[in-house]
Amino acid sequence: MNTRPYFVREKTAGMTGCNFAVAETGTVVVCTNEGNADLSANVPPLHIASIGIEKIIPKVADLGVLIRMLSRSALGSPITQYTSHFRASRPGTEMHFILVDHGRSERLAMDDFWYSLKCIRCGACMNTCPVYRRSGGLSYGGTYSGPIGAIINLTFDLKRYSALPFASTLNGSCTNVCPVKINIHEQIYKWRTVIAERHEVPFVKQEVLKMAGRLLASPTLHRATVASMGGALRHLPNFMLYNPLNIWAGNVSCPRRRSRRSTPGTRKIAEVAMATREAFLAKVRQAQPSARPRPDVPLFAATSWRR
What we know:
The chain is α/β, with parallel strands linked by helices.
């Protein structure tokens, strides 16, 4: 009788994701910049590839276009550092594919939101989003962050991620840079409508949005509020600003702006640093070999070429 726990396995498994799966050849393509996919796929005797059903593409000819599009949109480079193609298992090992739906079929049936399935996870929308660049990925509380996460996470759990569409300025920059032309900012606005219709907006947020609407509708009131609050924020105690009613504060406080006046100590440090820099550069110049004379290059007369 086997008394070992049921979770013990005979083989150690390595698990990878999938950027693209080619239906024509059965190839799984994983793009990384560190090579961690190669390590996970080749070292263990069992390779498990988790594939979202939207990652399947028809032919190899389509793969070349998407690979170049992915890297250029994410990093501005022609191709990723490691673009690994897995077609079959090595001798003595196994390779398993897991096709993941997880609400994707349901999203495909949504007339307004199925476009998000075209996402290739390049991250271009995150690079350009002013909210994401200042808040970071952890603030979204889900697997997918940034503008694309604000429309994808809601299909998994509307109540849990109901605040994400409101963390956007709707400037449309994410839609402009998206390589597969997903109308991200339009979907964010439509999700706001859905959340409001289903009464998933918290009471505090509702009241804050009403006050903001009245404030922004009156230019005179807006200017007066900005002028008065600018001075009040410097004198109000912290408990009036950072409390549970202020949903934007959380556990983060704004530091005081430091004076730009330099002290004798900072000036002395700057002088020593500059002197050290100049001394180092002088040594570098002395160690450089003398410049070689430039060879004579023959000059050619300009010629007009005509077909």
